[in-house]
Design goal:
single chain; mainly alpha; rod-shaped
Length: 221
């Protein structure tokens, strides 16, 4: 009696299909893992960039505050140097304007380029510039003080000379008055002597006349 057992399907084809599925699944998994890794990398990079941006913004804000502080501090120091000297005040206004231009330039640098190192250097230069201005103003004030002192001394010497001249003129006037008085007294004395001489002359003449008259009387008697 013949056997009715069905033929066994080929096992090799099933294994090939299974292997292909496994390979495709592996490729898909690897691709997904690669995509996930790439996304994670991008996310990490973006997170780092965001953190870096936040740090730069904080530093920019801090530098802006430092810039304002240094600028207004320098401006106040320059303002305190004002005096009654118009030339010195004009120089202070010029220096304040130059500091403002430097401040505006640094502020634009912070807003536009984001070069914080360069901004720090410029802020340091701004402070050095202000210190050089203050040193220049202090030197000018000292020179003006010396000139003022010299002018005061010259004015005192001039006043002393003027007083001496006034005293000398007064002495000369007194001497002139005394000389005039002496001349007047001399004239008066001369006139008195002249009058006395005239009196003596007249008296002598009268005496002579009297003597002659007496002589004539004696001769007659």
């Amino acid at each position: 009696m013949a056997s009715n057992t069905p033929p066994t399907p080929p096992i090799k084809k099933k294994d090939d299909s299974k292997q292909r599925l496994i390979a495709i699944a592996a490729i898909v998994i690897v691709t997904l893992l690669a995509v996930n890794a790439w996304l994670l990398y991008k996310y990490t990079q973006a997170d780092h960039a965001q953190e870096k941006l936040a740090v730069e913004l904080d530093e920019t804000h801090a530098l802006q505050e430092e810039l304002n502080e240094k600028y207004y501090e320098a401006r106040a120091e320059l303002e305190s140097m004002r005096s009654g000297n118009a030339e010195l005040n004009a120089l202070i206004e010029q220096q304040q304007q130059e500091l403002k231009e430097a401040k505006d330039r640094i502020a634009r640098l912070l807003r536009n380029s984001g070069n914080l190192d360069e901004a720090r250097q410029e802020i340091a230069k701004l402070r050095q510039q202000a210190e050089s201005y203050l040193a220049e103003l202090n030197q000018l004030r000292q020179e003006n003080a010396l000139l003022s002192e010299e002018n005061t001394q010259l004015a005192q010497e001039r006043d002393n000379l003027s007083n001496d001249l006034s005293m000398q003129l007064q002495e000369n006037e007194n001497l002139t008055e005394q000389r005039a008085l002496l001349v007047s007294e001399k004239e008066q004395l001369s006139n008195a002597n002249q009058r006395l001489s005239d009196k003596v002359t007249r008296a002598s003449t009268i005496k002579v006349v009297e003597l002659e008259a007496n002589g004539q009387k004696l001769r007659r008697s």
